[in-house]
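Hey,

The postdoc asked me to send both predictions to you directly instead of through the lab channel. I've kept everything plain text so nothing gets mangled by the mail client. Protein one:
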Amino acid sequence: MRVLITISFVVFAIYFYWRSVTFNINMTFWDVFWPQFFQGIATALFFMPLTTIILSQFEPEQIAQASSLSNFLRTLSGAMGTSITISLWDRRQAFHHARLTEHYNLFNQNAIDWGTQLKSLGITSSDVGNQLVNQMITQQAFIISANEIFYASSILFLLLVGIIWFSKRF
């Protein structure tokens, strides 16, 4: 069972790393499909062996209660993990938005070129131009922060491989 979970964690690490280097605004369907496909394999290899490891230490009359507690803790941990991830994503987005905004100024050639392109499209209002720039910076900041979360998750799953080997062997 530990071998299956180890394979699952390694596949999860590969999946998250793959996401961290391919997640961008111009993604195609297949850029989303293939990593999700491999995540499905990792998920299939994870839940049954983990449940077997958890319940293997209990007497038959305790399995129903242990299974209920395990499911409750898994759901609670998933909710907490989601909250932590969303909070990190939002904070990293704000950080990257500030950093990217620092580079958008009158002395940056890319900013000058962007302004020229907006004018060539007939957007002469500085308010509309600034809103478009802010929208683009926000999109890029969310992408960068998501890539950081994916990369950190890949490292976390590699670290979890070591923990699973402390479980009881049977």
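Protein two:
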Amino acid sequence: MLVDTHCHLDAAEFDDDRAAVAAAALGAGVGRIVVPAVERANFGAVASVCRDYSGCMAAYGIHPMYVDRAREDDLDALRETILRERPLAVGEIGLDGFVEPRDDVRQEFYFSAQLQIARDHSLPVLLHVRRAIDTVLKHLRHCRVNGGIAHAFNGSRQQADEFIKLGFKLGFGGAMTFPRASRIRELAATLPLDAIVLETDAPDIPPEWRVGARNTPDQLPRIAQTLASLRDIAIEEVAETTTRNATAVLPQLAGMH
């Protein structure tokens, strides 16, 4: 079995064929799909998807690229949703230093507040860390949470080691499949295998063979094969270890039937 630790199955890109996409993933051996929210407005859609499709589990949070339309009472709604739904993580939360224009102060306010919520509820977090890794790490050292995943990791080995020390796993997906992505591929090949989890970020970050097209969670086995090839190990070892890693950092996955 494989675990897709980051897939936006509630996204509008799947409105026409969501059931078929979920069935294809299951048929490809993707037994668990983590579906993170991005803002209060899609908490309900995420909950609905996770009720309707086998193997899907929710995370709730406010994504840094959506804080411009967030209100402080959205944080109260997040707390209430956590109590009601008991998600496996708080996410997708974090910081984004790439998008323009942006309000860094506002991003950090919502990130810090959501780390506190995660700590209060003893939940791990799903982190968005694009071009903001050092600042994210600073916040994590200030507010210690129950680990989590640094999604779409694209930092240095030193930064990777810092996340690992703080109890985090690192998410690798479609970006790793590009031959010219030398830094990501070097990390995928040399990091401890027990630090790595797999993800698609579908419908985004398509792998090399899907450039310009919608990404889907049934692509995860081929992404896993890329990791196996980079490390020169069997795909069975990749599947077994990354699934164990995902369950270790997101313990509620273990309770799913």
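Summary for protein two, as requested: The chain has nine helices and eight strands.

Thanks,
C.
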